[in-house]
Design brief:
Keywords: Signal. The chain contains two helices and nine strands. It is of the alpha+beta class and 150 residues long. It has a single domain, classed as Jelly Rolls, CATH 2.60.120.380. The chain starts with a helix and ends with a strand.
């Protein structure tokens, strides 16, 4: 097989893919940008503590009382930190971490606009990280979640 004949189509495919990604990307609205800025500050602060993002950060909207689950695979005996933030319309965000049996293994349900859960899993496996907005002055509040590993 002649590799040289594949180079030009591969370059064209990469260019088309990059164009499609740029065409489908949208700018963040002010509330999303506020949450994204908070998450960027959290990423820097966690980095100063020796943590790095273990998974891509999550941005979303939630109604009060609704949970947004994210399933993650964690290594046993590693130090993790889960951090959730929300926009200015929110005054209470919680994180609840469950194992795959549905047992709560860690949480931060204090009444604050940021939730931080340090966690060292006893064993390797899948865990469900749930973000819940408990206090929101509008129908939907924007939130962000970062999962960090040391």
């Amino acid at each position: 097989m002649n590799i040289k004949r594949l180079i030009l189509p591969a370059i064209a495919l990469l260019g088309i893919t990059a164009f499609q990604i740029a065409a489908t990307a949208r700018s963040l609205d002010p509330s999303e940008a506020e949450v994204d800025a908070q998450l960027q500050a959290v990423i820097k602060a966690q980095g100063d503590e020796g943590y790095q993002l273990a998974f891509p950060r999550t941005l979303g909207k939630l109604e009060r009382g609704v949970q947004a689950p994210k399933t993650v695979f964690l290594n046993g005996n590693r130090e993790y930190s889960f951090v959730a933030v929300c926009n200015r319309d929110c005054n209470d965000v919680d994180i609840i971490v469950k194992d795959m049996n549905g047992t709560v293994v860690a949480s931060d349900v204090a009444n604050y606009a940021i939730a931080i859960v340090p966690f060292v899993p006893g064993s390797e496996g899948r865990y469900e990280v749930n973000v819940k907005i408990k206090g929101c002055s509008v129908r939907n509040c924007d939130f962000g979640l970062g999962v960090f590993v040391k």
